[in-house]
Task: structure prediction
Amino acid sequence: QVQVVESGGGIVHAGGSLKLSCVVSGLNFRIYSMAWFRQAPGKEREFVAADPYASPGTYYEDSVKGRFTISRDNAKNTVFLQMNDLRPEDTAVYYCNPLRGEGMSGGRFVPKSSEYWGQGTQVTVSS
Result:
């Protein structure tokens, strides 16, 4: 049984930092590309960042480039999201997901999320 557990959210002032963690069990973590998504109130879930398992590069949604960094520790089945210079518009519930596939379209990374979701972790940024 696959389990996804996110942690590390909280309340910060604009300009602050948080580091999210996500532990995945029940699958071969090393051969999965991992991604972070977020969902703000009243909005659809959106892609934030991805760490493909088979390539050295990482991918980010435009609004978080230069502020967020995704990384992983395969020995601990854990993926991280370091978030710096947080803005009120970053307020959302953050989820990680072991992707079932991925692609590129028009130079943009296209994640294909799997059915494996955790409960998410709330990030609130005050102005």
Remarks:
- Residues 1 and 26 are 5 Å apart (CA to CA).
- The chain has no helices and twelve strands.
